[in-house]
Design a protein that fits this description.
One of its GO terms (cellular component) is cytoplasm. It is an enzyme of class 4 (lyase). One of its GO terms (molecular function) is pyridoxal phosphate binding. Its EC number is 4.4.1.2. By secondary structure, the chain is an alpha/beta fold. The protein has two domains: about 230 residues, 3-Layer(aba) Sandwich (Aspartate Aminotransferase, domain 2); about 110 residues, Alpha-Beta Complex (Aspartate Aminotransferase, domain 1), CATH 3.90.1150.10. Strand 8 and strand 9 form a beta hairpin. Helix content is about 35%, strand content about 15%. The longest helix is centred in the last third of the chain and has 22 residues. The strands form two sheets. The protein has a seven-stranded mixed sheet, with helices on both faces. It starts with 9 loop residues before the first helix and ends with a helix.
Length: about 350
């Protein structure tokens, strides 16, 4: 990045990283390079190994997280690539509440006899540490999806390494604007780029970020081998979305904090969960039926399963049969967007009257 310096704030890095050089007639934005084949003899060689449009996105995300990024075709492709590093019969300690796809992959691999999954309350630091003795991998998600539990990331990273385990942190909810796991000692940072990083409900992508060169080479080699690569257009859209990450997060987080306060005072809920940062709230209604009424009675809030975008979305999580039974039937995960907070609140209020 031209004029790169460690003193730059994330808000500046997210705008400037991954751009072409400041030279005459260079475009300001990295172009979309639609190519599967390159003339031999250079660094690219073939479209499954590299693409300049991916590289621009990877440069920007790597600069934000403080490492080197690899883009993947989806968040679950990135999850699968990390789990492929675990040897036969290896133990993976992971949150009992986490991204459903991560838990699903762990369950499927355990059922096949590939590894052993130990699911823990990631917010109970002592309980997590007690399970680390034979662990090959410690999987941290903070805040968790959808329970919004917050882990002591630094302490758990230290404990994981003391036990000889590698540590991956899913940083999707916090984003690198609020949490930088590599600076806390984590080996790998994982993102569902689909969510906050791209931020416009038009991209499915994932990413891993590391600092260790050898680990980077192993992960890239695995991506090359299985072909879990992002599309060029998706990479370009994700980079364009990333440019406004700081503005979107600032607005959605402010909205979420205000809505969490009002929801806590409303009286309709058994529980309101908000970790104090980020743009995701979880509310627990007394019954599944009440939660379903809420999620089907709004005009602005969209009943949808994804999150982290400019529009506000919500859903009752136990409508998915794979969701943990420790998640209340009436829990609604709310992803707060960048709309006017008064409009969002009015829409919720009229829906709550129906519950």
């Amino acid at each position: 990045m031209p004029g790169d310096t460690p003193a730059l704030s994330p808000a500046t890095v997210v705008v400037h990283a991954g751009r072409p050089p400041h030279e005459a007639d260079q475009p300001l934005n990295a172009p979309i390079q639609m190519a599967s084949t390159y003339v031999a003899g250079g660094a690219l060689e073939y479209g499954r190994y590299a693409n300049p449009t991916w590289s621009a996105f990877e440069e920007a995300l790597g600069a934000l997280e403080g490492g080197r990024a690899l883009a993947f075709s989806s968040g679950l492709a990135a999850v699968s690539t990390v789990l492929d590093l675990v040897g036969q019969d290896g133990v993976v300690v992971a949150p009992r509440h986490a991204y459903l796809g991560s838990i699903g992959q762990l369950g499927e691999l355990e059922a096949r006899g590939r590894l052993k999954a130990v699911l823990v309350d990631i917010a109970d630091t002592d309980a997590v540490i007690a399970e680390l003795d034979d662990a090959a991998l410690l999987w941290i998600e903070s805040p968790t999806n959808p329970a919004l539990e917050v882990a002591d990331v630094q302490r758990l990273v230290e404990a994981g390494h003391e036990a000889g385990a590698s540590v991956v942190v899913d940083n999707t909810f916090a984003t690198p604007l609020m949490q930088k796991p590599l600076e806390l000692g984590a080996d790998i940072v994982l993102h569902s780029v689909t969510k906050f990083l791209a931020g416009h409900s038009d991209v499915v992508m994932g990413a891993l970020v590391v600092q260790d060169q050898q680990l980077y080479d192993v992960l890239k080699g695995r991506r090359d081998l299985v072909g879990a690569i992002p599309g060029t257009l998706e990479s370009w859209l994700a980079l364009r979305g990333l440019r406004t990450l700081h503005l979107r997060v600032e607005r959605s987080q402010a909205n979420a904090a205000e809505l969490a306060r009002r929801l806590s005072e409303h009286g309709a809920f058994a529980e309101v969960r908000y970790p104090g940062f980020g743009a995701v709230i979880a509310v627990v209604l007394p019954t599944a039926e009440a939660a379903d009424v809420l999620t089907h009675s709004t005009s602005l809030w969209v009943h949808a399963t994804s999150l982290g975008s400019v529009e506000s979305t919500f859903e009752r999580r136990r409508r998915w049969k794979g969701e943990a039974t420790t998640i209340p039937e009436g829990l609604v995960r709310m992803s707060v967007g960048i709309e006017d907070v008064e409009d969002l609140w009015a829409d919720l209020e009229q829906a709550l009257e129906r519950t």
